[in-house]
Amino acid sequence: MGQSKRSVYDAEPIPESAREIIEQLMESGDLFRYTASKENPSQVTLLEKEFAAYMGSKYALAVNSASSAIFLSLKAVGVKAGDQVLIPAWTFAAVPSAVVHAGAQPILAEVGESLRIDMADFEEKMTGNIAAVVVSHMRGHTSDMDAIQALCTKHDVPMIEDAAHSLGTLWNNRKVGTMGATGCFSFQSYKMVNGGEGGILLTDDPDIIAKAVFMSGAYEHNWAKHNFDDVPFEKYQNQYPLYNVRMNNLSAAVIRPQIPLIDARVAKGLANYTYVENKLNASGAVAVPPADPRERRAPDSLQFNLIGFDDAQTQRVMDISTARGNPISIFGIQGDNARVFWNWKFIGNTPDLPKTRAMLKRACDIRLPVGMTREDLDQTVDFILECVSEARMRIAS
Q1: Interatomic CA distance for residues 337 and 92, integer angstroms
Q2: DSSP state of 318
Q3: pTM of the entire structure?
Q4: Strand order in the sheet with 84-88
Q5: Which of 41, 75, 205, 290 is deepest in the core (most CB within 10 A)?
């Protein structure tokens, strides 16, 4: 793919405004969030306050990853050893890993070629044995949250939103990540906000945040430095183990200046996505799954399905793109892909999920960074279509 001003591997830049705070931290060496006083809050505490305000949530807890946020959420809503947790069969391996870390068993629901949870299968598996649900908005594709919420309410099962890929996404004009008992976001480099690593947990429940704060590593009375006046911390003092998954001040200083930029990044990312989506769909060779009418996307990557390709042709798409230096990942063809359920050997027996398996064998994945120019996007479209066309022709010949 020719020389582009912005590579699909580029992360979002760190604003210049972060430099002064970072330099102060470097000089002082004060990177631990609990060195600060309640009166002079740390960078991490300020991040929690600002992110919660942006999302319209009461409480936020910054941690070292979205995976940790999901794990703490599972423990805080009461998941115990031996419980079953319902998750989508298409997600990153960190999600079933969090379930396993919590001592529970992941139960996988089918995901169709729309890249959303198959609601018939989800409802069938929502039995009395399910202790919690983790809804992964994988790659920013929102499943039917109305139906999922209704089922969780009917069965009195807490819902945790894995919104790692969905910062800025709306569902019926509600912010994704604010509809469950908790919402979990990622600040890993390839997300809408780039912290290198990091995550954050949102909730409106004072008991959940109290438990999560303790488990994150707020030993002794460090919980007071979170500045939550209406949270019953005393009730849970010394009742929960410390997992020590805290965020440090340097990460928070990198993340904080990007919060005011989220809306502009979302608008640019959606405009880029729509432009590429329309061009690819017009080709007739590939199909980008349409958005749900209730959803406003906030994309920073692109997924599309190959139309009428057999296994050999599909493999060629990946081989050709890889040889040209810009791999198009095809989830179920790339042997060790961590987003493929049959690679999750750690969950025990691999379930039979024909819909998800078929989707993963033809679903393609490529990054679409927000900062790409129209020229970059045109080059990306041309590259995809050239690889797809060549893969089909070579096999046919």
Answers
A1: 9
A2: H
A3: 0.96
A4: 59-63, 199-203, 182-186, 159-162, 130-136, 84-88, 105-109
A5: 75
Q: Are residues 198 and 298 part of one domain?
A: no
- What are the angstrom distances between the C-alpha of 300 and each of 247, 306, 375? 24, 20, 17
Number of other CB atoms surrounding residue 224 within 10 Å: 14
Task: Check if the beta carbon of residue 65 is closer than 8 Å to that of residue 201.
Answer: no
Residue 350 has phi, psi (to 5 degrees) of -80, 125
The answer to whether 289 and 114 are in contact (CB under 8 A) is yes
- What is the C-alpha separation between 313 and 294, in angstroms, rounded? 35
CATH of the domain at 219: 3.40.640.10
Q: Helix (H) and strand (E) counts for the chain?
A: 13, 14
Decide: 355 and 362 in contact? Cβ < 8 Å. no
pLDDT digits (tens, 9 = 90+) for 207-246: 999 999 999 999 999 999 999 999 999 999 999 999 999 9
Name residue 134's beta-bridge partners.
160
Determine the distance from the C-alpha atom of residue 328 to the mean position of all C-alpha atoms in its chain, rounded to a whole number: 20
The domain in which residue 331 lies consists of: 261-396
Number of domains making up the chain: 2
Token pair in block for residue 213: 């704060």
d(C-alpha 185, C-alpha 99), whole Å? 17
Distance CA 314, CA 169 (A): 31
